[in-house]
């Protein structure tokens, strides 16, 4: 804006305009009163920060260049550099979201030095699209560049491209790897399971999902199972069937694809839906992690509104049966205030499957005593035993 003031001024007003522009730039407006400054379309600012998680103190800070937006970051080790740790940062240059246009992308490679206290820039690798996801993989790095899935190794002047898959439909948003198996989340078309064949140096899609999902976050639970969340507020768990084979061949001619194309023009094998649940808020992150010392690992999610939630697995059929009946009684005895059916709410986009609503079950303690007694009798328990059961499953995983 200051530059526009100087450019718009006439020749005899240049000096005055320059003074006004300098005063405008030098004025410090408090954010608490005027709010944070808003950038114009295509204007971005990003920085990389190393923080101490114990006290929130900033150890090192690296500002990026003007109009560069950081979209992905990962800690990687490269085979030819031993145990040295590198931070890869995926950056977009002059990105316009609507209509989508980008001047290009870069991957900044930083070396972690001074025992992880400082970042040292090694090089930056130019790309033709936005690097939206990065994941370490067998001493190299998997990078999602738009809809392209690539493997890069470390070079002296830039990262070196070793392998590429062009068959992800729209845009890669998440990458998870375990062993030689890779699970790629697409911005509109859910998950694609990819196998890396080292001898042929190929990335081959061998399975995918039957439902479209606008993926925002994912977490690999085991070799065959992945948990994912989409921008509409659904959490799902997908698992490959036991008879799934990842020993598939590349088909450059397309002849084999005529007979082995599978459903919906996708991969020939499909993942099964293990669980579906509607949270109601856009989930931004998923992580499998223990919340208490020596406890089991629940799935922790965070949302755009600031909610931190936990999805816990049942370890016995008895617990599952108990909470399933408790949820059923709570639906009838304690309907939502607005009169909406609880089951239809939790099934807003996909039918709820294999997930019990803990928030609804927890409302048992706030019911009237006579309702508590009625529900507990139907479950062959006393109200105190039901409350104890709720407390047990909570303390077993979280708090």
Structure commentary:
With 399 residues, the protein is α+β, with helices and mostly antiparallel strands. The chain is built from eight helices and 21 strands. The chain has helices at 2-8, 14-26, 31-34, 317-333, 342-346, 358-362, 369-378, 383-397; strands at residues 47-51, 58-63, 68-76, 86-93, 104-113, 118-127, 131-137, 140-145, 148-153, 160-165, 172-178, 181-186, 191-197, 202-208, 215-220, 225-230, 234-239, 272-278, 283-288, 299-303, 308-311. The strands form six sheets. A four-stranded antiparallel β-sheet has the order 3-4-5-6, with no helix packed on it. A four-stranded antiparallel β-sheet has the order 7-8-9-10, with no helix packed on it. Helix 1 runs antiparallel to helix 2 (14-26). The longest helix has 17 residues, at 317-333. The two termini are 52 Å apart. Mean pLDDT is 89; it is low at 253-259.
Count of beta strands? 21
Rg, rounded, reads 26 Å
Report the biggest beta sheet as strand number plus sense, adding barrel if it closes: 4 strands, antiparallel
Low-confidence blocks of residues: 253-259
Please tally the helical runs, counting DSSP H or I stretches of 4 or more residues.
8
Structural class: alpha+beta
- As a percent range, the share of helical residues equals 10-25%
Q: How are the strands ordered across the major sheet? A: 3-4-5-6
Q: What's the N-to-C terminus distance?
A: 52 Å
Task: Look at the structure and give the mean pLDDT.
Answer: 89
């Amino acid at each position: 804006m200051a530059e526009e003031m100087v450019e718009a001024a006439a020749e005899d007003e240049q000096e005055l305009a320059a003074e006004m522009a300098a005063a405008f730039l030098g004025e410090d407006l408090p954010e608490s009163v005027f709010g944070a400054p808003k950038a114009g379309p295509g204007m971005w600012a990003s920085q990389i920060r190393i923080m101490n998680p114990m006290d929130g103190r900033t150890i090192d800070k690296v500002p990026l260049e003007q109009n560069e937006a950081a979209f992905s970051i990962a800690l990687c080790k490269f085979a030819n550099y031993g145990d040295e740790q590198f931070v890869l940062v995926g950056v977009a240059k002059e990105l316009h979201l609507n209509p989508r246009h980008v001047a290009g992308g870069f991957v900044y490679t930083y070396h972690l030095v001074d025992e992880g206290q400082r970042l040292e820039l090694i090089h930056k690798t130019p790309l033709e699209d936005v690097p939206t996801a990065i994941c370490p993989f067998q001493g190299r790095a998997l990078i999602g560049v738009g809809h392209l899935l690539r493997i890069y190794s470390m070079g002296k002047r830039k990262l070196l491209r070793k392998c590429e898959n062009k068959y992800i439909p729209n845009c890669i948003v998440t990458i998870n790897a375990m062993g030689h198996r890779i699970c790629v989340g697409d911005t509109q078309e859910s998950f694609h399971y990819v196998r890396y064949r080292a001898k042929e140096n190929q990335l081959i899609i061998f399975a995918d999902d039957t439902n479209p999902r606008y993926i925002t976050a994912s977490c690999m639970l085991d070799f065959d199972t992945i948990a994912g969340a989409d921008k509409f507020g659904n959490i799902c768990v997908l698992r490959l069937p036991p008879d799934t084979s990842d020993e598939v061949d590349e088909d450059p001619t397309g002849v084999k694809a005529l007979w082995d194309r599978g459903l919906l023009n996708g991969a020939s094998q499909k993942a099964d839906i293990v669980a579906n649940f509607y949270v109601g808020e856009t989930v931004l992150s998923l992580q499998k992690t223990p919340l208490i010392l020596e406890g089991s690992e629940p799935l922790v999610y965070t949302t755009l509104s600031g909610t931190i939630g936990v999805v816990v697995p049942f370890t016995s059929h008895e617990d599952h049966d108990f909470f399933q009946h408790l949820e059923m009684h709570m639906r009838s005895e304690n309907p939502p205030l607005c009169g909406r059916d609880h089951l239809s709410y939790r099934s807003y986009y996909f039918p709820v499957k294999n997930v019990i609503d803990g928030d609804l079950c927890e409302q048992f303690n706030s019911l009237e005593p006579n309702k508590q007694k009625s529900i507990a009798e139907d479950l062959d328990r006393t109200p105190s035993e039901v409350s104890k059961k709720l407390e047990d499953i909570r303390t077993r995983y979280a708090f």
